[in-house]
Amino acid sequence: MRFTSEQRLDDGVLERDFTLNEIPGILWTPASVSAPVPLVLVGHPGGLGKMYPRLVSRARDSVAEGFAAATIELPGSGDRPRSAAAEEARAGLRRALRAGETVGDEIVDRLVLPLVERAVPEWQAALDALLTLPEIGGPVGFSGGVIAVGVRLAVVEPRISAALLFAGSFVPRATFEEARRVTIPLQVLLQWDDEGNDRQAALDLFDAFGSREKTLHANLGGHTGVPWFEGEDGARFFARHLK
Amino acid sequence: MRFTSEQRLDDGVLERDFTLNEIPGILWTPASVSAPVPLVLVGHPGGLGKMYPRLVSRARDSVAEGFAAATIELPGSGDRPRSAAAEEARAGLRRALRAGETVGDEIVDRLVLPLVERAVPEWQAALDALLTLPEIGGPVGFSGGVIAVGVRLAVVEPRISAALLFAGSFVPRATFEEARRVTIPLQVLLQWDDEGNDRQAALDLFDAFGSREKTLHANLGGHTGVPWFEGEDGARFFARHLK
């Protein structure tokens, strides 16, 4: 893990860009840290540059609770090399959406499952590296991003203690089965009028999670219309489980 | 409105019992009030005595935000006179539940609609009286209780600015139509495994509300298993809309 730049944001938060095995990432830590702090991994749909304003806003919500926050680029997004198979799956998705067709399970599987297979070990490697920093101690939460990635991480990565998931992306069939094996506390966000999202599938996925503590927050509005107060609600969810 | 007793709770909250047109009620106000405060009406399914521990806990959440909180007994509950029609409707409900039958729309209508017709003007009269007190200024929120009562109040009572509703009671068909006319901000609680409650009906009701700001909080567990943090979340919802 190599830090490539750092800056102080106006509220004193320390923002550092890093690369890890050629994967770019960003780490945010509180203005001053006297003891090792918990960490929130900030998920996203890919494209750190484009997503930056929303990522830094979510990171600030965590840092305000005294946590560190970190993110890495997804495989095939941002400046990372594209894979022919992933590009073909995306083209298939775009064709289906343009034609106004239902996006079939095969397209979703081809689009999402290889991403899960590649991204999850990368997040785990990032976790290995981040937890060696003296200012970061855990516990660790995972927040948002591609929900199939979050579900897989919740199942395979015992260092993740709680997850805030966004039910706003395509869900492979296998993820519903995996969801039953999730046992950590969950908060699940659902945008009630998300055009590209199947509301019933999101409710079915919430139902499937094996966790004893799980909360669904559904809000009126489309995919990008998550209300500001959910940022604070998410930070409080992590405060309950990471402190 | 006549105060019949008062006591200071251990945290300094002033709790006063009152009667209004022979209806018993309870008012909670902060330890000290320097300017008129907003008011939260604390709804419930009937029976102030039995419900007291939960009512005082919810009242404290509001008082902690600097609000007053008040409740009144429902018609036909607690020490108030029973009506033959209501008792017959309740017996019909108990028979259906004991027989493991689906509770039909007719039973729900006979049980809930007369309650709405009688209770809503009583809550409005309580509001008239409470708003004459120098320590209470508004705005006003309504919290919980029989959801059909909350929906009707949200439609007919312009002094109510926000409502926190509990989707855990039988919903008459007419209430789904009324829900479309609700425009105030809403937070709706749903217990995902509420035995006596139709989950799909609750989701349909949430969908029906006409409000531009509406949030559903669904939690794992049965009817009485609402997690403690929803009390704080509810207080924050009212803090956003009543301050």
Task: Describe the structure concisely for a colleague.
2 copies of one chain form a homodimer. Chain A has 7 helices and 9 strands, in the order ββββαβααβαβαβαβα. The first copy, chain A, is of the alpha/beta class and 243 residues long.
Helix coverage percent of chain A = 40-55%
Radius of gyration over C-alpha positions of chain A, nearest whole angstrom: 17 Å
Into which percentage range does the β-strand content of chain A fall?
25-35%
CATH level 1 name of chain A: Alpha Beta
3D structure, described in words:
Two copies of one chain form a homodimer. Chain A has 243 residues and is an alpha/beta fold. Chain A has a single domain, classed as Rossmann fold. Helices cover 41% and strands 25% of the residues of chain A. Chain A is built from seven helices and nine strands. The first copy, chain A, has helices at 48-64, 84-98, 105-131, 147-156, 173-179, 199-208, 229-242; strands at residues 2-8, 14-20, 23-29, 37-43, 68-72, 136-144, 160-166, 186-191, 214-219. A nine-stranded mixed sheet of chain A has the order 1-2-3-5-4-6-7-8-9, with helices on both faces. In chain A, strand 8 (186-191), helix 6 and strand 9 form a beta-alpha-beta unit. The longest helix of chain A has 27 residues, at 105-131. The mean pLDDT of chain A is 94. Chains A and B meet through helix 6, strand 9 and helix 7 of A and helix 6, strand 9 and helix 7 of B.
Topology of this protein?
Two copies of one chain form a homodimer.
Chain A: E1 2-8, E2 14-20, E3 23-29, E4 37-43, H1 48-64, E5 68-72, H2 84-98, H3 105-131, E6 136-144, H4 147-156, E7 160-166, H5 173-179, E8 186-191, H6 199-208, E9 214-219, H7 229-242
Parallel strand pairs in A: 4-5, 4-6, 6-7, 7-8, 8-9
Antiparallel strand pairs in A: 1-2, 2-3, 3-5
Helix pairs in contact in A: 1-7, 2-3, 3-4, 5-6
